[in-house]
Design goal:
There is one protein chain. The chain has 2 domains: 4-172 and 214-241, NAD(P)-binding Rossmann-like Domain (Rossmann fold), CATH 3.40.50.720; 173-213 and 245-316, UDP-galactose 4-epimerase, domain 1 (Alpha-Beta Complex). 42% of the residues lie in helices and 14% in strands. It has 12 helices and 14 strands. It has helices at residues 14-24, 42-46, 58-68, 81-86, 88-109, 142-161, 187-197, 216-228, 249-257, 271-278, 287-293, 301-316; strands at residues 4-7, 30-34, 50-52, 72-75, 112-114, 117-118, 165-166, 168-170, 172-174, 201-203, 211-215, 240-241, 245-247, 265-267. Helix 5 runs parallel beside helix 6 and helix 7 (187-197) crosses helix 12. The radius of gyration is 20 Å and the shape is globular. 46% of the residues are buried.
Length: 328
């Protein structure tokens, strides 16, 4: 990769991936593509070029590719799972119509394309524990339908037109940088915010609801490493299972309590998010990613928890609460 366009650069993943790519490729142009009302700000604006790119407008995609001589497109434009259920037509328009536009530009201009898939691409008929790389994918959400369709469409463009399409199936992503935005797994971000702010956390999922999760630094590495991987080693392309950790609300709550002993949580289930979570796998088998491009996560639950709490305290200017010592 030399010159990169990130479509959706001001979103939950895009904000951090754009900065990571700029640090990784300091001698190239890493272009932050944005839509009106979501313009880059601060360091994201000042550290590199930005360009208006609405994924539903193929002319804007082509214009940015031509202007910056882009060779790789990261297509991050999508609605999150719970939001997509409220706006299914828009989810399809962005997720599949937008992907088609991106792939057409890539075919015409000779670009590689990364489009993330998700654990949401699976459904209740999929083996829930250690979900295989190649298995049944029959999701029951529009979010999942767009992800499966996106995998198939990307594979088609690779086979039919030779477009270098690659992808990973992201688990739930946890980050202290971007606030949670309506995803089913976002409770695992909200819970850290509540703990740092000294608030009681209202968990929208039942105890025992296991899902695969990943700390954002590992996810960013995966998105870059898959695009740098030797294509001769890739048996799969769209899309690789990647995994890091799997837990339910009780496990993450008890881990946080090790560092915030007075933290409290109560269960207030959200029927929509619970139904979505119940249709997703408990854990993924990422053997193919490990074998085909040497994927390896760096963070476990304990390391992520210590990192999240420290950075959120710094973000909000909150000192760590020390246990009270009583002298007798």
């Amino acid at each position: 990769m030399k010159n990169v366009l990130i479509i959706g650069a001001t979103g939950q993943i895009g904000t951090e991936l754009t900065m990571k790519l700029r640090h990784t490729y300091p001698n190239g142009d890493v272009v932050a593509g944005y839509i009106p009302g979501a313009e880059p700000k601060g360091e994201l604006l000042e550290s590199g070029p930005s360009h208006l790119v609405d994924i539903t407008n193929p002319a804007q995609i082509a214009e940015a590719v031509d202007k910056y001589k882009v060779d790789t497109i990261y297509n991050l434009a999508a609605l999150l799972s719970a939001v997509a259920e409220a706006k299914p037509q828009l989810a399809w328009k962005i997720g599949i119509g937008g992907l088609y536009n991106t792939l057409e530009v890539a075919r015409e201009k000779g670009c590689a394309v990364f489009t993330p898939s998700s654990i949401g691409s699976f459904g209740p008929g999929t083996p829930a524990v250690k979900t295989p790389q190649d298995t049944v994918q029959r999701p029951r959400t529009i979010y999942g339908v767009t992800k499966v369709s996106g995998e198939l469409l990307s594979d088609y463009y690779a086979l039919r037109f030779g477009v270098d399409t690659r992808s990973v199936r992201f688990p739930g992503l946890i980050s202290y940088v971007a606030p949670p935005g309506g995803g089913t797994t976002d409770y695992a971000v909200d819970i850290y915010y509540a703990a740092v702010k000294g608030e009681k956390f209202k968990c929208p999922l039942h105890a025992g609801t296991f899902m695969d999760m990943m700390y954002m630094p590992d996810a960013l590495r995966a998105a870059i490493e898959i695009m740098e991987a030797d294509p001769k080693r890739l048996v799969h392309r769209n899309s690789f299972n990647i995994a890091s950790m799997s837990f339910d609300p009780e496990i993450i709550y008890n881990k946080i309590k090790e560092y915030v002993p007075d933290f409290e949580m109560e269960y207030v289930p959200d029927p929509l998010r619970q139904a979505i979570a119940d249709s997703w796998p408990d854990s993924l088998d990422d053997t193919c990613a490990r074998e085909e491009w040497d994927w390896q996560p760096e963070y476990d639950l304990d390391g992520m928890t210590r990192h999240m709490l420290a950075h959120l305290r710094e973000k909000f200017g909150i000192a760590e609460r020390k246990p009270e010592v009583i002298h007798v």
